[in-house]
Design goal:
heterodimer, A: four-stranded antiparallel sheet, 11 strands, globular, B: mainly beta, six-stranded mixed sheet, four-stranded antiparallel sheet, 0% helix
């Protein structure tokens, strides 16, 4: 199993450009998440999904959109990139165990995005 | 809202030294608590977790005990190795069905031979 994979690994954008980050998991997990990691701030939740066709906002959703058309994929879109979106983006997935809060999240390797 | 505070880094130790990384939290209800580790150039991976008060999580020689009375979940290891050099994140899971994680800011640990 590949686990959680992210595409691309690196990307440089100019201000105003758009792009989509792809996350794929092969563990049949129900829940998927997108985080951004910035120095000194840990990871912050952007958007998440509790199942195919569902999405919800996290802590820092502005400037991002997401879609979960297939259970195994979770896409993060930037419609008009800004320098403040320079960050490392991590995708994660988690199984669903009847509403407990104990399930582990499995993380992808990250995408390093620079917006000039 | 929920929050997690970790001791500020970076932390530099010699091999075989004792390690403590402090973590305290603020949360409503009874969250689950986690330590994740990020090795250079990689994503995060679970190190250990505890789901209720007085539980002790342990893995790879690391331990942390869920202390409800002090709202803490400090990470400890008796004898660190160079291979333990990484960034460590304390996190809590909220009580909603979505199991969202709230992370501390991370502590960079460097172990010198």
């Amino acid at each position: 199993n590949a686990g959680v994979t992210q595409t691309p690994k690196f990307r440089v954008l100019k201000t105003g450009q758009s792009m989509t980050l792809l996350c794929a998991q092969d563990m049949n997990h129900e829940y998927m998440y997108w985080y951004r990691q910035d120095p000194g701030m840990g990871l912050r939740l952007i958007h998440y999904s509790v199942g195919e066709g569902t999405t919800a906002k996290g802590e820092v959703p502005d400037g991002y959109n997401v879609s979960r058309l297939k259970k195994q994929n979770f896409l993060l879109g930037l419609e008009s990139a800004a320098p403040s979106q320079t960050s490392v983006y991590f995708c994660a997935s988690s199984p669903h165990s009847g509403g407990t809060s104990t399930d582990t999240q499995y993380f992808g390797p990250g995408t390093r995005l620079t917006v000039l | 809202g929920n929050s997690v505070t970790q001791m500020e880094g970076p932390v530099t130790l010699s091999e075989e030294a004792f390690l403590t990384i402090n973590c305290t939290y603020t949360a409503t209800g009874y969250p689950s608590l986690f330590w994740y580790v990020q090795y250079p150039g990689e994503g995060l991976q679970l190190l250990l977790k505890a789901t209720k008060a007085d539980d002790k999580g342990s893995n790879k020689g690391f331990e942390a005990t869920y202390r409800k009375e002090t709202t803490s979940f400090h990470l400890e290891k008796g004898s660190v190795q160079v291979s333990d050099s990484a960034v460590y994140f304390c996190a809590l899971s909220d009580q909603t069905g979505a199991q969202k994680l709230v992370f501390g800011q991370g502590t960079r640990l460097t172990i010198n031979p």
